[in-house]
Amino acid sequence: MYGICIDRASNRICYPIYDKDDNLIGVKGRTRFKNFKELKIQKYNNYTKLKRMDTFVGLKQNRSIIQQVGSVIIFEGIKSGMKLCSWGLCNNWLAAETSRLNKAQVEILLNMQIREVVIAFDRDVDMKSIKDCTALLRRFSNVYVV
Known about the structure:
By secondary structure, the chain is an alpha/beta fold. Helices cover about 30% and strands about 25% of the residues.
């Protein structure tokens, strides 16, 4: 469903990145090595250079269900969203691929007229950062943080 493949040469899980109009704009890989820090390798690798992340991973696949239910769960990375999906819990998730929503990502959510946004970033992201990047969004949507 998400176009996942394995780059065996670098031991990475690879996935396509689509823009808000569903055009393929890049490919990203996440290492499968648990000890990547000790090995001094990057956790993520962009196979295609992206200027900035102005979309969400999972938008192409999950847009219709998100609009249908009017709510979305936003994770930092695709792995969390795919776990949720694999457990059969829901498909109304997106991955920001960062720990801070940028202006373009907020505009996507506003244009979709999402009523409820749940931010499910990792524990190391501070609440002030989340409040700052969701200020505009909170004027038009209910924003929750878990």
